[in-house]
Amino acid sequence: MSDFSEIIKGETPVLVDFYATWCGPCQTMSPIVDDVKNEFKDNLRILKVDVDKNIPASAKYKVRGVPTFLLFKKGEIIWRGSGVYSRADLRKIIEKSL
């Protein structure tokens, strides 16, 4: 968890993807998140957090359903969303944080 805390405090925005391996919508979002990461390159970090393996992180950020996304900048949550997003919508959300 300490690495997580350090990463989200950085200058580079961090999109945290809370997911579960058994979650269909999470599987739908995985390639979209990967594409967005490739598009933004070094201007965005992605952290994928398996809610079943990281219960303390899920509890701390009150993740009640998956997929849930948190966008951090300098340690602050600047956006939170749950569910399936299109590539274009996710891109627009992230562009606002850059």
What are the key terms here?
alpha+beta; 98 residues; 26% strand
Spatial order of strands in the largest sheet = 2-1-3-4
Number of strands: 4
As a whole number of angstroms, the C-alpha radius of gyration is: 12 Å
CATH topology: Glutaredoxin
CATH class designation = Alpha Beta
Please tell me the overall pLDDT.
94
- Helical run tally: 4
End-to-end distance: 25 Å
3D structure, described in words:
- The protein has four helices and four strands; from the N terminus they run αβαβαββα.
- It has a four-stranded mixed sheet, sandwiched between helices.
- A hairpin with a 2-residue loop joins β3 (about 70-75) and β4.
- The chain is about 40% helix and about 25% strand.
- It has a single domain (about 1-95), classed as Glutaredoxin (3-Layer(aba) Sandwich), CATH 3.40.30.10.
- The mean pLDDT is about 95.
- It is of the alpha+beta class and about 100 residues long.
